[in-house]
C-alpha cells in the first residue's frame, strides 16, 4: 500500500520539481484506496511490466526488478528518476544541477562509515538519477548484469555504476548533493539546509524511525515541502488540494 510519506514525495515532485511530464510506473495496480486516488491526481499512472529475468538469469528480488526497469526507462526516454522516499525541496537547485552539467548521467555518491563503523564505504545511489536518453553508461551498466549477483542487495545497482563512473568520469557526474541523508544525525541539519532533494533510504524502517523523530527530520520535510508547494503558485485541482491536506493530517499523526 502507498504510504502517506510517499505521497508527500509525489507532492514535492509535482509542485516543487515541476516536471513537464510526471509518470508513476506500476506493474501491479494497487487497490482503489484514497492513497492511490491521490497518487493518480498528482501523476499519470502508467503500467510497466517489470522484468523477471536478465540475460536468462532470474531477478531474485522485487527491488532488483525495479533497478533494471528504471535503467530501461531512463535509457529509452531520459529524464529524472526519483525513489518514493526522495523529497525535492529546492526547485532552482535541481534545475541548476540538471542544466549546468554536461554529463549524460547525474546521480548521488555516498561516502560514509558503515553501520559497524569499522570501514568507510563509497557507492553510487540509484534512487535519484538524471539521465539523457541512450546514455552510454546506462548501456554499460545494463551489460554488467551479465554478472548479476542476486544474493547481493546492491552490487549491480550501486557498486557497479560507481566503478563505471570512476573508470570513465566523463560518463557520469556523481555528487553528494543528491546522495541519501547521512546516517550520522549530526550531519542532518546541514544536509537539510543545502540538499536539492532529501533522499531518506529506508524511511519507514524501525532503524530510522526513532532517529528521524528525535531530529525532527520528517516533520521539517513536511513543513518545507508544503511551504514550497504553496509558494510555487501552480494551480491545484480539487483532488490535489484534498490530497495535500490529507497528507498533512496523516503525517502529523506519526511524525512530531
Brief account:
By secondary structure, this protein is α/β, with parallel strands linked by helices. It contains 10 helices and 10 strands. The protein has a single domain, classed as Alpha-Beta Complex (Spore Coat Polysaccharide Biosynthesis Protein SpsA, Chain A).
List keywords for this structure.
two-stranded parallel ribbon; globular; alpha/beta; 46% helix; 256 residues; four-stranded mixed sheet; 10 helices
Question: Could you walk me through the main structural features you see in this protein, from its secondary elements to its overall organization?
Answer:
By secondary structure, this protein is an alpha/beta fold. It has a single domain (about 5-255), classed as Spore Coat Polysaccharide Biosynthesis Protein SpsA, Chain A. The protein has helices at about 5-15, 35-40, 60-75, 90-100, 135-145, 155-165, 190-195, 205-215, 215-230, 240-255; strands spanning about 25, 45, 55, 55-60, 80, 85-90, 105-115, 120-130, 175, 195-200. The strands form four sheets. The chain has a four-stranded mixed β-sheet, with helices on one face. Strands 1-2 form a two-stranded parallel sheet. Strands 3-4 form a two-stranded antiparallel ribbon. The radius of gyration is 18 Å and the shape is globular.
